[in-house]
Design a protein that fits this description.
alpha+beta, Immunoglobulin-like, 4 domains, four-stranded antiparallel β-sheet, five-stranded antiparallel β-sheet, transmembrane, membrane, 29 strands, transmembrane helix, DUF7939 domain-containing protein
Length: 604
């Protein structure tokens, strides 16, 4: 019995020793750094090594206080030495410091195990080892204004500078809580000298619209770039000496192989954060609130010189053009109350114009008017309140009131209809020489039982009725046959007439040099060409037509509308280019040679 008890105690002790060894082995968590001193533009490689059997993932959140985690990887390794098996897990992180100074690598945890804490010294960039002390990369950011109004769009610009062309580069977007940030346009590249050093500059623009008043913090973007490493003793090419022995031409023309030669140096830079103070809407600024740099309202009619007549429809188009805002910010116009006219408004069409130096938006309101009574017709004044962000004062865009004279509807068309005397069934009128008694006494029949005129008038009447019935039947059959056999052709004819009329209106406005009217006529042509899904703007029309030349021309028309006074748009030259693109009406629906009716709009 004593021997058995001693064996049990020995076994229990061995198990406890194994458990303690296992726990101690699993608790070994180490942090390794590839360097403890670096510049603010360099990156740091951190390795977290866990020996033993572990589960779960470490918490790297404490690192984000002073570092950006650019990348991470994980590996596992199992080894057997002298019959003993060991397990190792390793996490590799690439870190970029957010600031200079002594930065702490805090203790990291995995389960119950914790690593040691370390300190890294981060210094200012000294040009990356360049002899002239220039910086290999850097970022700059600025805003168009530092005190915008709420909902006022302003531009935020970022410029990335590279001393040498990068092998690859990535630029993040700025962040702003409480504002909408949207990238606009394409990146623009140019060369610029900074402190006497030539740099390749890349400029990127953003549109920022604050949603609330108060302080607005814009977090600057981060630039990650891999640039050629020009530092001495870095990444020596193993074949460089051999190539030098042959005069530097041995490997000339050979492609660079991955992993050989100079892989480049990874650098990171950040643009400084900006603090923007957003102003609230001023008191008495009016509703709706529209902060802009320019607002105009154009009033156009179709036809361009309308005649107001009872029952005849006219189309009025009001176009709001605003700079410094987006189309979503443009309000709906209050057209007032019209008396003596029926109003049929279309759905408003809004569009943001691309390619402009400042954000420009338009919104069109098309209204069909049908006068219901003759006499004076008053169109009330239309007012749109807006805030001039340049002069910092309220303004009003006004369409003045107009009083028009509505003519009465024409009576029966070209003129009064002539009076036609009825002759069927009337008795003959006596001559001037006939006596009064002749009207009282019946004439003596020439033939008993038939009358003085005989049977020929009755036969003529019967034949006439038969001929009239045949004519009515023939016309009905012919009309029915045309209706049944030609509905598609008739629809094509109507569509061709509409396209031809719209095309002639485009020609007329272009030759008149009226860019705004030409734009409206082009959209009317597009509506006739694609009635079910018409383009909403000239940019969409250019995409629908599918030509780079027509896209450039339509963009010129858009720009001509908002050109400063004194600039003349060459509408005649524009029409020479437009005409072939708008000539598809007759090809889509050719006119029939045997059409019984002439064209509604004959071509001139």
């Amino acid at each position: 019995m004593p021997k058995c008890r001693s064996l049990k105690h020995l076994s229990s002790l061995s198990i406890l020793l194994l458990l303690a060894t296992s726990l101690a082995w699993a608790a070994n968590l180490q942090v390794q750094l590839d360097r403890n001193r670096l510049t603010v533009q360099d990156t740091l490689t951190l390795r977290l090594i866990a020996d033993g059997t572990t589960s779960g993932e470490p918490d790297f959140t404490p690192l984000t206080q002073d570092f950006d985690i650019l990348g991470r990887g994980q590996s596992k390794m199992t080894s057997i030495v002298n019959g003993a098996m060991s397990h190792t897990r390793q996490w590799t992180l690439e870190l970029a410091p957010k600031r200079t100074g002594a930065l702490s690598i805090p203790s990291l945890s995995l389960g119950n195990a914790r690593s040691q804490s370390l300190t890294v010294e981060v210094t200012e960039s000294n040009g990356g080892g360049a002899e002239d002390g220039s910086r290999p990369i850097f970022l700059e950011a600025d805003a168009e204004t530092k005190a915008p109004y709420v909902q006022q769009a302003f531009e935020y610009r970022v410029r990335a500078y590279f001393q040498d062309e990068p092998l690859r580069a990535t630029l993040s977007d700025p962040l702003a809580d409480g504002a909408t940030v949207e990238r606009i346009g394409e990146d623009r590249g140019y060369e610029e000298f900074v402190d006497g050093q030539r740099y390749l500059a890349i400029e990127r623009r953003y549109r920022v619209i604050p949603n609330r008043s108060g302080p607005l913090a814009i977090q600057g973007p981060r630039l990650e770039a891999v640039v050629p490493d020009t530092r001495a003793g870095r990444q020596h090419d193993p074949f460089a000496d051999l190539d030098q022995a042959f005069g530097g031409t041995l490997f000339q023309g050979f492609p660079q192989m991955q992993g050989l030669g100079n892989p480049g140096r990874r650098l990171v830079d950040r643009a400084g954060d900006l603090e923007i103070q957003v102003r609230a809407q001023p008191d008495g600024s009016g509703t709706p609130w529209l902060p802009a740099t320019s607002v105009q309202i154009a009033d156009e009619w179709t036809p361009s010189q309308p005649t107001f007549r009872v029952g005849e429809p006219l189309t009025r188009t009001l176009t709001v053009t605003a700079q410094g805002v987006t189309a979503a910010q443009l309000p709906t116009l209050d057209l007032g109350t019209l008396d003596g006219v029926q109003v049929y408004p279309d759905q408003p069409q809004s569009e943001d114009l691309s390619g402009e130096s400042v954000p420009t938006a338009i919104k069109s309101f098309k209204i069909a008017l049908v006068p219901t009574r003759a006499g004076p017709l008053t169109l009330p004044e239309i007012r749109l309140h807006w805030w001039d962000t340049v002069a910092d004062e309220p303004r009003v865009a006004v369409v003045p009131a107009r009083t028009l004279e509505v003519a009465a509807a024409p009576s029966g068309g070209a003129g009064p209809s002539p009076v036609i005397e009825a002759t069927t069934g009337s008795e003959p009128t006596g001559s001037a020489e006939s006596s009064p008694d002749a009207t009282r006494q019946p004439r003596s029949p020439a033939h008993p039982g038939i009358g003085t005129t005989g049977f020929w008038p009755w036969l003529t009447l019967l034949l006439g009725l038969a001929w009239l019935g045949t004519l009515v039947w023939w016309r009905r059959e012919r009309r029915s046959r045309l209706t049944v056999t030609n509905p598609i052709q008739e629809a094509q004819d109507r569509r061709a007439a509409s396209l031809n009329a719209a095309r002639r209106q485009v020609e007329k406005t272009c030759l008149a040099g009226d860019a705004r009217a030409a734009r409206a006529a082009l959209l009317d042509w597009a509506h006739a060409r694609w009635p079910d899904h018409a383009p909403q703007g000239l940019s969409e029309l250019a995409n629908r037509l599918g030509g780079e030349e027509i896209g450039d021309l339509l963009h010129v028309i858009d720009r001509a509308i908002y050109a400063p006074p004194g600039e003349v748009w060459d509408g005649a030259a524009a029409w020479q280019t437009l005409a072939p693109w708008l000539g598809g009406a007759t090809r889509d629906a050719p006119a029939r040679a045997d059409d019984p009716l002439p064209e509604l709009y004959p071509r001139t």
